[in-house]
Amino acid sequence: MKSSPYAAAMRPAAVEVAPESVTKGAARGSSAYRRISLALFLAGFATFSLLYCVQPLLPYFAAEFKIGAAGSSLALSLSTGLLAIAILVAGALSERLGRRGLMFASMVLAAIFNVMAARAPDWHSLLVARAVEGFVLGGVPAVAMAYLAEEISANGLGFSMGLYVGGTAFGGMAGRVGVSYLTDYFSWRSALSTVGILDLFVAVGFVVLLPKSRNFVRNTALGGWDHFALWRKHLKHSLLPAVFAIGCLAMGVFVTVYNYAGFRLMAPPFNLSASKTGLIFSAYIFGIVASSWAGSLGDKLGRGPVLASGIFIAAIGLLATLQSSLFWVTVGIVLVTIGFFTAHSVASGWVGRLADGAKGHASSLYLLGYYLGSSFIGSVGGFFWQRSGWGAVVVFSIGLLAICLVLATILWRKSPGMAR
Length: 420
Fold this sequence. Notes:
By secondary structure, this protein is mainly alpha-helical. The protein has one domain (30-209, 236-418): MFS general substrate transporter like domains (Growth Hormone, Chain: A), CATH 1.20.1250. Helix content is 78%, strand content 0%. It is built from 18 helices and no strands. α14 (284-301) runs antiparallel to α15 and α17 runs antiparallel to α18. The two termini are 37 Å apart.
């Protein structure tokens, strides 16, 4: 009996390669493993530096274009929102077109649109450029997680996924800090252009380093309804929806803090300049370390306890930001960053372990929730800031983390066999 494209996609892919090939993925310590890890680190860097380079500019947008804090956040929220939608499309396309080329094209096009946003003559033109940038960038995160799940051996997946997430952390930091300094000394338009041009070079480095897929099987038989069936299958999974929700809520909290911390730090009693505020966001360095540490620790100790620990650390950090001391606000942002990247690194790696076939579709659903959290929750946080100040932002965020902790506990208890 002939099997359907849907059934074939849900089975673990059979790879026709020579016997000496490492069909189970590149082993940790091998040359291929190092090249893949470094290339995906660059992909993470480009994704977050392009997406979040506008975050420190939100107060400037509000002042120059005469809009509120929540309105200025559209420069980021539209990008992440369109990216969330594009992830589903890109994940499906990658099953036909392959992983490597799609990621490269996405990075190049997004960098070009970032330069166009820098040259936009008015607010609406800037928003259009940023929206299109987010949409074309969807090909990177949608495919990167699937590529790693296919090409890296199971015992090294946690570390390589953590390194990829570390690349996003480094990109987010470089985008925020670099843009802050360039804006102080030149202009926000020059800053955005610089990020776009830099990431064009990053894209070239990525495609040179990344080996061609060895375990990917091109699937041209899947039609539109087959993709919907695969997504539905993952959504009916007993545990995957909880992982998707954690990614959504944790990312929403993280973006909310970073979106509006700039407004708070540049206003009394802190009165920091853009460059000094940018230095606070160097907390991303701790995210780089935490993501690699968490991925590796999750491989050894189990994902459940590490995930719950990350959520708890982020909550402690939020409470610390309530202090009027710049020192404690900075410590709080550092803890929120460590907690978020710990949780995200573990959760994103867990998707590939829980998914039964069609890992690209499972990854796309996780990232759909992840970036919808960034877009929707990140903007909603602005209304709490405008109406009731930073205390309301913290209460809102703590509530979301409490939900994350409940879901993490359920995952921990119900999947003991998958905890590692």
